[in-house]
From TrEMBL:
Residues 2-171 form the Prephenate dehydratase domain. Residues 184-261 form the ACT domain. Pathway: Amino-acid biosynthesis. It is an enzyme of class 4 (lyase). It comes from the Archaea. It comes from Halodesulfurarchaeum formicicum. One of its GO terms (molecular function) is prephenate dehydratase activity. InterPro entries: ACT-like_dom_sf, ACT_dom, Preph_deHydtase, Preph_deHydtase_CS. GO terms for cellular component: cytoplasm. Keywords: Amino-acid biosynthesis, Aromatic amino acid biosynthesis, Lyase, Phenylalanine biosynthesis. Transmembrane segments: none annotated. One of its GO terms (biological process) is L-phenylalanine biosynthetic process. This is Prephenate dehydratase.
């Protein structure tokens, strides 16, 4: 079973993917193509970054998941420790994933205030650029050093506890109702006073803890949102089914997607 993730080799997504891959790992340069590759059946499994403890949601992943018919089958949590990698101190540009640049904002401003920051598709593609060009530095996992690239500084993220959650995804037939957590995506397609309260009450009433609630613009009109909800309960549980049934009632103008239930894996 091939697992596709954000490449090239050496990204944090690649590190997370090795924890769930039982065979070959394939790489693409965008989260959208990972999700569409899994939804279209080209790959059996994918691994996408979802949320970082410093910088928050990876919005491209949330939007891609809302648009596709895939199942979330596992959550992978991994610590993120960034290193600054370059051929030497003589660089003018730091190229990395937008999340990595943001997670190291204070360090970069404080230590290299003159450097230009350039967002690229992944940390590893910034590292590749640095390997080819002495005027470019990358930010990525220190294991990417070598072959002409030095670690100029380690642990440059602005908070020591920097962790990212990834989802393993698979085709809709892999959707499971068992596991300690579940993910839903809800599009109410309506707006009235108390809407958000109605979205949350069915869970509170049944003592179901929410571990994430994120709103994303629906793209339909300003002020219209899609909600991403993670619950600490399985879809097999009667209380979860009852809560979702209530939400489906008030979201009858829109839709409710059950992404699946899963367990969490911590990877170092
Ligand atoms: O670019 C990568 O290495 C990724 O996998 C995305 C990412 C970037 C920064 C922190 C966590 C994940």
């Amino acid at each position: 079973m091939t697992t596709v993730t954000l490449g090239p080799e050496g990204t944090y997504s690649h590190r997370a993917a090795t924890a769930v891959a039982d065979d070959e790992i394939a790489f693409t340069e965008s989260v959208h193509s990972i999700v569409s590759g899994v939804a279209g059946g080209k790959f059996e499994q994918g691994v996408v970054p979802i949320e970082n403890s410093i910088e928050g949601s990876v919005t491209e992943s949330l939007d891609a998941l809302a648009d596709a018919d895939v199942a979330v089958t596992r959550e992978i949590v991994t610590p993120i420790r960034h290193a600054l990698l370059a051929q030497g101190e003589d660089f003018a540009t730091v190229a990395s994933h937008s999340q990595a640049l943001a997670q190291c904002r204070d360090y970069l401003l404080g230590t290299y205030p003159e450097a230009d920051l350039e967002a690229v598709a992944s940390t590893a593609s910034g590292v590749e650029r640095a390997r080819e060009d002495p005027t470019i530095a990358g930010i990525g996992h220190p294991d990417n050093a070598g072959d002409g690239l030095q670690v100029l500084a380690e642990d440059i993220q602005d908070q020591n506890s920097n962790a990212t959650r990834f989802f393993a995804i698979a085709g809709p037939e892999a959707r499971s109702v068992s596991g300690g957590k579940s993910s839903l995506i809800v599009y109410p397609n309506t707006n009235y006073p108390g809407l958000l309260l109605e979205l949350l009450e069915p869970f509170a009433d049944r003592d179901i803890n929410l571990s994430r609630l994120e709103s994303r613009p629906s793209g339909e009109r300003l002020g219209d949102y899609v909600f991403h909800i993670d619950l600490e309960a399985g879809l097999y549980e009667e209380r979860t089914q009852a809560a979702i049934a209530e939400i489906e009632e008030f979201a009858s103008e829109g839709w409710v997607k059950r992404m699946g239930s899963y367990d969490v894996e911590h990877v170092v």
